[in-house]
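Continuing from the previous page...

OK, I double-checked the sequence for EF-hand domain-containing protein against my notes and this is the correct one:
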Amino acid sequence: MNRPNASVLAALAAAIVLSACAGGPSRATATAQNQPARPGGGHGLDAFLGSYDANRDGQVTRAEFDAIRLQRFQAADTNGDGWLSEAEYVAEYEGRLKRQYFDTGRQPDAAYENNIKQAHVRFGIVNRARDGQFTWAEDQAIADKTFTGLDSNGDGIVSRADPQRPREQRAGND
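Thanks. Re-ran it with the corrected sequence; updated structure tokens here:
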């Protein structure tokens, strides 16, 4: 009898864990709440909720937010050195963007290419040390600012209950 190798078992285990994390309410419930996942991201409350509301309950706790950011960071760190190169950073984003396009039945277009170009620009901004090594600490600084900016009522949860500030007051937070 053939035994599966370790990489096949690891991939299967990862798929099971991700399925469990994405579990929560059924697809019908998520659709009823009108909150489809938007893995490519974007700006504003809708994109934030779509990207980080792991259990699809209409709100994002700091724990949900941090867990997804950590998962993305670790998955992007393909060589395991603890930081992201520009190539790793852009590849992680491109994977989420491809999934978003696939989920909506779209083919990559000019907007897709522009988003990839912008990911390269963003790397230059988020890599505050300007050393080509985007660290977890740099990511956490962005996460703190983002979450605090969207949690406008200060209850530790981002939801539609948070009054949204005008865009100019949120600059850099979403």
